[in-house]
User: Which sequence fits this backbone?
């Protein structure tokens, strides 16, 4: 029996989408300066593909929802940024900031109670081609983040409280 090369999108019309693990992964790119992600896009790979920066806003977290971010164009102005949907939703976890003038690795921690954004400026806080991190919703108020960014100069934390 031959396997069809035509992809089928599974959906039952719910605004929160449908899960079909391992079948197909959405890639979100070319979004311009800002993009608010939807619950139904959980599982997508979101590209930071604009030299002038991209800001993605996460949807309200539902446990198990997940998004991955990949920098495919180095930031030269503004920032490559991911923010939570509300001031009561937070990031928790660790990002490795690799590189810089001293070729060191710094662990940057998001405490889960005040950090609402990760912002890479194209130099000290990451934003260079190859950066990659993932966020996974673990509650209605927290996203766990893990991954790495690469920087130049004296590297610093990419996490922010606003």
Assistant:
């Amino acid at each position: 029996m031959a396997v069809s090369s035509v992809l089928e999108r599974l959906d039952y019309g719910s605004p929160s989408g449908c899960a079909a693990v391992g079948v197909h992964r959405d890639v979100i790119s070319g979004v311009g300066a800002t993009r608010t992600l939807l619950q139904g896009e959980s599982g997508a790979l979101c590209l930071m593909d604009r030299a002038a920066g991209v800001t993605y806003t996460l949807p309200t977290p539902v446990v198990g929802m997940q998004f991955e971010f990949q920098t495919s164009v180095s930031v030269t102005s503004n920032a490559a940024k991911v923010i939570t949907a509300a001031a009561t939703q937070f990031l928790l976890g660790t990002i490795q900031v690799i590189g810089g003038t001293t070729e060191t690795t710094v662990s940057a921690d998001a405490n889960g109670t005040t950090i609402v954004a990760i912002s890479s400026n194209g130099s000290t806080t990451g934003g260079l081609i190859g950066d990659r991190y993932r966020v996974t919703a673990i509650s209605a108020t927290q996203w766990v983040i893990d991954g790495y960014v690469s920087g130049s100069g004296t590297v610093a934390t990419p996490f922010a409280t606003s």
